[in-house]
Amino acid sequence: MHFDYSQQAFALASTLMPGGVNSPVRAFQSVGGTPLFINHAKGDKVTDIDGNTFIDYVCSWGPGILGHAHPQVIQAVQKACVDGLTFGAPTRKESTLAQLVQQCYPAIEKLRLVNSGTEACMSAIRAARGYTHRDYIIKCIGCYHGHSDGLLVKAGSGLLTQAVADSDGVPSGYTKTTLLAPYNDEKAIQQLFETYPNQIAAVIIEPVAANMGVVPPKPGYLQFLRDITKTYDSILIFDEVITGFRLALGGASEYFGITPDMATFGKIVGGGMPLAAYGGKKEIMDVISPVGSVYQAGTLSGNPIATTAGIETLQILMKDPDIYDRIDYKTAQLAQAYKEKGYTVNRVGSLMSVFFTDQEVVDYASAKTSDTQQFAHYFHIMLDHGIYVAPSQFEAMFISDAHDQKDIEKTIQIIQTYL
Ligand code: PMP
């Protein structure tokens, strides 16, 4: 396998963009080597510009639950393009998508469409603060909620591999109202509420953490968060950017049977296009402008092409909910193969991470015990054998409906033979 064209493309890109990429983890910084420059993708495979084809377990970091270039989604998008790319005025498609989200996720009484998970989380927090007239929020160490200033505190994902706990360029004032607790630590949350009674607007949480590798909530943890936020009249926000429409149609909320006050979505909800959403109880969402006094806007928000891709994707999922059993089963098979090799595996549904540590991984501190050099070695073994997993320890492996049994078995064989 050679990567000559990717290397050339990366050399040029590096002169034009920081690190040659438009999002840090893509740069292969923590595993070394040259990022694959993708030419096209179909089903469960991506093909790079050198003509190498890989079974893809990145799935664009989550959106690709149906696999790449699903014919129904592509056809609808092509048709929508002919009618115009953007109007900056309402379309009926926005309401169609909103209704589908509502049907899947009953906690969403009203929502706003935005363009990225970052925007969704930033805006949800602004709404929560505006509604409660409180300033503080709680986030968990190792959870990532996008790159808005106030949330870049002990965030996960690319920030973990680069050992940048906080980002330069964020004035300390922006993060003063962000309180931190270790994931899965009920006492820490309890203490924060006792220290700041009547001051905490919201707790924002990844209901399954997936940006320090996959870390499931301990039994009872999400219920504890539900109860304590209710007690202190604080808002519980589930960041379902990864888990939404992936663990179940109703995301982690349905999967664990916990109803948050607000939720954020990205990735799958846009069917592979730049679209995200935030929403929740009607009375909270009605603080948003022009009804209320909390400002939030977007030129391309609810864009008709992205909205079309989202609608088609959700409709496919809703017509065939057995997808969730299928992707769960395939992921379980892969998890078993890794476990048999002695690796630590965390899995919830079709989200999974393999850790190179003897410890149980329950939070950021235990995730950090994973040997990232060993991860880099593993990553390249997989790549050399035609398997593309996320180029970072602190990301999830995504399994889609397009991963067929033959490719799952091929992956298992490579795990058994080469790891
Ligand atoms: N929340 C979570 C849980 C995420 O995983 C991500 C991105 N991976 C975001 C928010 C931010 O989304 P985006 O990259 O679309 O801004």
Automatic annotation (TrEMBL):
Cofactor(s) the protein requires to work: pyridoxal 5'-phosphate
Taxonomic source organism: Absicoccus porci
Subcellular location: Cytoplasm
Keyword ATP-binding: no
SUPFAM superfamilies: PLP-dependent transferases
Protein name from the UniProt record: Glutamate-1-semialdehyde 2,1-aminomutase
Annotated keywords: Cytoplasm, Isomerase, Porphyrin biosynthesis, Pyridoxal phosphate
Top-rank EC class of the record's enzyme: isomerase
Record has Isomerase as a keyword: yes
Record text on subunit structure and interactions: Homodimer.
Pathway note: Porphyrin-containing compound metabolism; protoporphyrin-IX biosynthesis; 5-aminolevulinate from L-glutamyl-tRNA(Glu): step 2/2
Family membership noted in the UniProt record: Belongs to the class-III pyridoxal-phosphate-dependent aminotransferase family. HemL subfamily.
Reactions performed catalytically: (S)-4-amino-5-oxopentanoate = 5-aminolevulinate
CDD domains in alphabetical order: OAT_like (cd00610)
Positions bearing N6-(pyridoxal phosphate)lysine: K267
A GO BP entry: protoporphyrinogen IX biosynthetic process
Enzyme Commission no: 5.4.3.8
